[in-house]
């Protein structure tokens, strides 16, 4: 739990008494005074906190209901009044004021009543009214299962039970203007609470931020979004959507974007830490963001890089020199390349310019350097298969044939997406599963489009699915948002390289033979491998994060250079934290082993105090420091799991410097997917129904939403 000063309020005590993770830490204790004149104390007591010796200490100045935990300010010692306690409308029982009206209530315990079952006619009336509302206002059907909607109705039902006359519905419903004002007040309150938490994390160097720009196309409003990540002192990873603020600068330059980022960080007192380079940023390679963050610690998004490798490998983002050669080609040459050129010219994103700065060596990386006009004939058939597949899916969608395909037992053909090119894998898989059904439909209808199915090579299609399968798996692995991910670059890039060069192994540790059906597949397999070598370079923090993961601490699958540098970096950080002087160590080569998952595949061999794994230099060479003890210790199987934080939580007293370094590194996400999910939430907020929402209100709504999600899992986060 983050460090915070305990300043209790009625609202905070309400939350603490209702927490589910440790329901005994805060309880309501009885008023033990011998002379109690008010019946209020039959329902109320004092909130109390559990001490180290398991006794409870009263939180002075408050009184809480035993049933619903609602808390009021109350001063004991004769100065406090129980009037508010007597008038308390408990959601679970009748008001005390009504019970005190009869003297018999002091000696007779009223029987608890259970909720009556709705009569069939009332049940039908409610269902009809809900159905009419959903249809007339075009609301989604699942709105009736929304947790917030249920809580709202429960509140109304509970309140209505406390009155003996009809309630004016206008007293219950709040005006849109009141909701808007309350959203802003709640957002400001949450910002005041989160400010000290973020400052604590920045001071410790455990704060990471992912920035990005987004445009609401319906109103043409630009937004800057910031998502923050940190591993707090409880060794839990927290993610908060800090802002989705309107971008009001006159231009989109790096300097202007930087100005907006600094304005937002200033609200939370984080500018000094940004200036001291204590905050790490994770971003894609969009040129504007990179210019804005020039000089700051930046980790490039691994998912975007892999996606761009694929785009370039299949000539989707052609370089200018390739286009010039195409334009200079003969007419017949252009006609032969028409199908391929659709892929070449289909898109160009802002990040591709950064990728094009890499110039692979023509002699070392032949396939990576091959221009589109020079690729082998069989390789062109692979590109033609992709183009024809895209055309087929588009045609099937336009003609409404997906329903016919489903009726025959096939799979709906899925369109790919230019932004996320890995979705091409899903498209190809759907075609592979339904192509025969499509062929059958075309034959029956004698559709002339049938002849274009011949452009789809079944061997090439199956090879592409196999080739892209691991890219798809890797993409899913690195986009985890619930646990640390920085070390996943070490796992995933190693997996892709082995998948492409034929050295990958299955779950039993046996080599997987490359069995390409189409002759053109080998060209793209080599091209992908070479581009991955050229375009992806491990950041030092990727390898260090892997070293601080109990499964990968000996860096079995890293190069000697990366391994050496990682341990040097760790020792430098330990030196900074504790002021120790350390030296280097040597390590061993990989061993074959069985594995269950991709993450297991690149784990170190099982610990048996393996002296092969780490050399044992004499004590005269360097002191027996934290890193050395960590590398040579036997780690229990419980800690050999995907999430490394439980290990560091339970061993922070043994490794104080390394545990802090682990918090710093595992706070950094390996991708910027989190901030993109924030944009998805913004897109759901900004709809035609909400077209008049003010951009600042949208910012407040998304921020409150993020904090509410956090409090649902950690109700005592701020206290």
From TrEMBL:
Tell me where in this chain the HAT C-terminal dimerisation domain is found: 626-706
One GO molecular function term of this record is: protein dimerization activity
Q: Which UniProt keywords apply?
A: Metal-binding, Nucleus, Zinc, Zinc-finger
On whether Zinc-finger is a keyword of this UniProt record, the answer is: yes
Hermes trasposase DNA-binding domain: which residues?
123-177
Cellular component terms per the entry's GO annotation:
nucleus
Q: Which residues form the signal peptide?
A: none
Q: Which InterPro entries match?
A: HATC_C_dom, Hermes_transposase_DNA-db, RNaseH-like_sf, ZnF_BED_domain_contain
Compartments where located? Nucleus
Pfam families (UniProt xref):
DBD_Tnp_Hermes, Dimer_Tnp_hAT
User: What name is this protein filed under?
Assistant: Transposase
The scientific name of the source species is: Adineta steineri
